[in-house]
Specification:
By secondary structure, the chain is an alpha/beta fold. The protein is built from 14 helices and eleven strands. Strands 4, 5, 6, 7, 10 and 11 form a six-stranded mixed beta sheet that branches. A three-stranded parallel beta sheet has the order 2-1-3. A two-stranded antiparallel ribbon has the order 8-9. Bound molecules: pentane-1,5-diamine. Pentane-1,5-diamine binds at residues 31-34, 79, 128, 224, 265, 267.
Length: 357
């Protein structure tokens, strides 16, 4: 009888379990390839809270799961427009700023944006763009924008993110429309363009579009900036436990922000109203915003880090990565929630196009 008791006491000590209960847990629902295991392990080590990381590959998938009920998530990672939609539906818990003192580290330019003007429900996690990656060893003609990418020359050599809103907006840019001008008429104008584009695509992949480019399965793509940043820099940047950013060896991949237009996405952290453990959720969000932790996120997933204190810890090489920190003086727009009716039209457009492709 003695041994089990000792084991339980030890487990309680290690995992922070209460005398009577199981270890505390936190359900995290986040984009795939976005939260380093090292960060999750660090949080568990410090707090005793076990993190269950469930992944999604699009905001639409995430919202559908939230609406379906099922798992009660404690922290979610909606992109700007999805956070706005969830807040409108009254599905998010207002954040308690007193529990997130590390929010002081965030750069003001990423706060107060239209999806959450008063920062009531979200903090920014990472920022990014969607741009064109060119393998310059395979593609010699200049590629400046979507019309070059989808000129027809690269049929079956293209990888794109599998994301309805992103692809639709790229098509709208070529028509000179602004990114949130998604009317039924504009959707119909975009349809034939997208039909032509999608027929040239070899791989749709929102999880790891870099893989096809790295392996040579694709020579050109439309990908998340953080994926492009990983191609651009050395593959040996993160070895074992040592944070080691080496010289950029991989110059064969070029990242191009399309001449027709681009936007930034602001991926956020938020707490659903149905969270079982909002206290742990606040702890997790505050932990992520700690400079040394946020730096680890950048090391593994080099998107644009909105944390000023963390940026100070990045190496000159990391800051010089053109996909992570593009030199641009214009401040790009962000996606807004379109409302249920138009969202359904976008979903239907994409489903139709994929079915016909
Ligand atoms: C992470 C992809 C996040 C970008 N793998 C989408 N906003």
């Amino acid at each position: 009888m003695k041994k089990p008791h000792l084991t339980a006491a030890l487990a309680a000590l290690i995992f922070g379990a209460g005398a009577a209960g199981a270890a505390e847990e936190l359900n995290l629902f986040a984009w795939s390839e976005y939260v380093p295991q090292k960060v999750i392990r660090g949080f568990t080590k410090e707090t005793g809270i076990k993190v269950n990381y469930e992944e999604f590959a699009s905001c639409e998938e995430m919202i559908a799961k939230i609406n379906a009920g099922g798992t009660a998530y404690d922290v979610i990672q909606p992109s700007d427009y999805a956070a706005e939609a969830l807040a409108k539906e009254n599905l998010l818990l207002p954040l308690d700023p007193a529990k997130i003192p590390n929010a002081k580290n965030l750069l003001p330019e990423y706060l107060g944006l239209p999806h959450d003007p008063h920062g009531k429900f979200t903090v920014p996690y990472m920022i990014g763009s969607v741009g064109i990656v060119v393998n310059t060893q395979k593609i010699k003609d200049p590629v400046a924008g979507y019309n070059d990418l989808f000129s027809g020359k690269y049929k079956n050599r293209i990888v794109v993110v599998d994301d309805a809103r992103e692809l639709l907006v790229a098509a709208l840019y070529t028509l000179g429309k602004s990114i949130n001008d998604i009317t039924p008429e504009n959707i119909e104008l975009a349809r034939p363009i997208l039909k032509k584009w999608l027929s040239q695509v070899k791989i749709f992949d929102s999880d790891s579009p870099k893989n096809a480019l790295r392996s040579g399965e694709a020579d050109i793509g439309l990908v998340w900036s953080g994926e492009a940043a990983l191609l651009w820099r050395s593959e040996k940047h993160f070895e074992g436990k040592k944070l080691k950013v080496t010289k950029n060896e991989n110059k064969k991949f070029q990242y191009v922000l399309a001449s027709e237009g681009h936007h930034i996405f602001v991926d956020t952290l938020a707490i659903p109203k149905t969270a079982k453990n909002p206290d742990a959720a606040h702890k997790f969000i505050n932990y992520i915003l700690r400079p040394d932790v946020s730096r680890l996120v950048s090391a593994e997933f080099p998107y644009t880090n909105p944390n000023a204190a963390a940026r100070k810890l990045l190496s000159p090489d990391e800051l010089a990565n053109p996909a992570s920190y593009p030199a641009s003086s214009i401040k790009p727009d962000t996606f807004r929630d379109l409302g249920a009716g138009k969202n359904a039209l976008v979903d239907k457009l994409y489903t139709d196009l994929k079915a016909d492709n």
